[in-house]
């Protein structure tokens, strides 16, 4: 299977199975959003996606442990991970762009400002402000109160910044061959990820029960949950990835000069941490 300078993988059933599982999941999701039913299909698709990912990654790990990957394959993995993270950057850029557009263009237009200020004719009594506590359409109830950035959001910021530090220490320990250092600091990183997820769950509970911040609370509620919710999903995925890396470290996987799986997980986690800094500043502070 390995010859010359490039590794050619054997034919695999996983890509087509992943596509089918993803198709089922998205079809079910669309049915839930449009018709209010289709949850079993969505759940079955999600289980299928997770199962395929688990088995596919298992095969990749086995191939790596058998020494089937050479330097060219390592470069391919690095380019692949790099482009994946770039796609995630564009993903969040679209959401941040939406927030910027709404705050700086759409809402002022409704108050008569700018080139499209004629939109103020729709709701002549509307006054532009952010956070938008009183949506122009009176049938939509805005949030009652917004979160102070210096409470739970600040705690979560400190947690994620700390997790980047602990992960860096774990990575340096792996590169130097100190496996106990890698194990302990990586375990701390996973724990910090779980703490972040828990605190964000508490924040969402408070948002719905006490602050009136819901998906139906106008554009503020929508942008709040889109940005923080998708980021929270990335934290959950990143925590799972790091937990898998921890399991591999405990099983003796990785070497000082051969550990791209660990390195890719670190790239992803640092990216997630960087996105949160932007969220903290533009969703909570400004």
UniProtKB/TrEMBL annotation:
<protein>
    <recommendedName>
        <fullName>cytochrome-c oxidase</fullName>
        <ecNumber>7.1.1.9</ecNumber>
    </recommendedName>
</protein>
<keyword id="KW-0472">Membrane</keyword>
<feature type="transmembrane region" description="Helical">
    <location>
        <begin position="41"/>
        <end position="61"/>
    </location>
</feature>
<dbReference type="Pfam" id="PF00510">
    <property type="entry name" value="COX3"/>
</dbReference>
<feature type="domain" description="Heme-copper oxidase subunit III family profile">
    <location>
        <begin position="2"/>
        <end position="286"/>
    </location>
</feature>
<dbReference type="InterPro" id="IPR000298">
    <property type="entry name" value="Cyt_c_oxidase-like_su3"/>
</dbReference>
<feature type="transmembrane region" description="Helical">
    <location>
        <begin position="82"/>
        <end position="102"/>
    </location>
</feature>
<feature type="transmembrane region" description="Helical">
    <location>
        <begin position="14"/>
        <end position="35"/>
    </location>
</feature>
<feature type="transmembrane region" description="Helical">
    <location>
        <begin position="219"/>
        <end position="246"/>
    </location>
</feature>
<dbReference type="InterPro" id="IPR013833">
    <property type="entry name" value="Cyt_c_oxidase_su3_a-hlx"/>
</dbReference>
<dbReference type="InterPro" id="IPR033945">
    <property type="entry name" value="Cyt_c_oxase_su3_dom"/>
</dbReference>
<keyword id="KW-1278">Translocase</keyword>
<dbReference type="InterPro" id="IPR035973">
    <property type="entry name" value="Cyt_c_oxidase_su3-like_sf"/>
</dbReference>
<dbReference type="InterPro" id="IPR024791">
    <property type="entry name" value="Cyt_c/ubiquinol_Oxase_su3"/>
</dbReference>
<comment type="similarity">
    <text>Belongs to the cytochrome c oxidase subunit 3 family.</text>
</comment>
<feature type="transmembrane region" description="Helical">
    <location>
        <begin position="182"/>
        <end position="199"/>
    </location>
</feature>
<keyword id="KW-1133">Transmembrane helix</keyword>
<feature type="transmembrane region" description="Helical">
    <location>
        <begin position="267"/>
        <end position="285"/>
    </location>
</feature>
<keyword id="KW-0812">Transmembrane</keyword>
């Amino acid at each position: 299977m390995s010859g010359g300078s490039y590794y050619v993988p054997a034919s695999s059933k996983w890509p087509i199975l992943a596509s089918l599982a993803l198709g089922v999941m998205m079809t079910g999701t669309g049915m839930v959003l449009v018709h209010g039913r289709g949850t079993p299909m969505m759940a079955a698709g999600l289980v299928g996606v997770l199962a395929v990912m688990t088995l596919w990654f298992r095969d990749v790990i086995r191939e790596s442990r058998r020494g089937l990957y050479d330097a060219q394959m390592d470069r391919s993995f690095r380019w692949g991970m790099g482009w994946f993270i770039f796609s995630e950057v564009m993903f969040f850029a679209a959401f941040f762009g939406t927030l910027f557009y709404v705050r700086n263009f759409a809402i002022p237009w409704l108050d008569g400002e700018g080139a499209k200020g004629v939109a103020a004719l729709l709701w002549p009594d509307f006054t532009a402000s952010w956070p938008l506590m009183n949506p122009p359409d009176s049938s939509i109830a805005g949030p009652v109160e917004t979160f102070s950035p210096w409470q739970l959001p600040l705690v979560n910021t400190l947690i994620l910044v700390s997790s980047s530090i602990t992960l860096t220490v774990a990575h340096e320990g792996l590169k130097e061959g100190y496996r106990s250092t890698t194990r302990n600091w990586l375990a701390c990183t996973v724990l910090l990820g779980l703490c972040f997820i828990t605190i964000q769950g508490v924040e969402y509970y408070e948002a719905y029960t006490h602050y009136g911040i819901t998906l139906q609370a106008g554009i503020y509620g929508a942008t709040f949950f889109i940005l923080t919710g998708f980021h929270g999903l990335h934290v959950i995925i990143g925590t799972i990835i790091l937990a898998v890396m921890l399991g591999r470290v405990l099983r003796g996987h990785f070497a000082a000069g051969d550990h791209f799986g660990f390195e890719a997980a670190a790239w992803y986690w640092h990216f997630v941490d960087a996105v949160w800094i932007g969220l903290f500043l533009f969703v909570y502070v400004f």
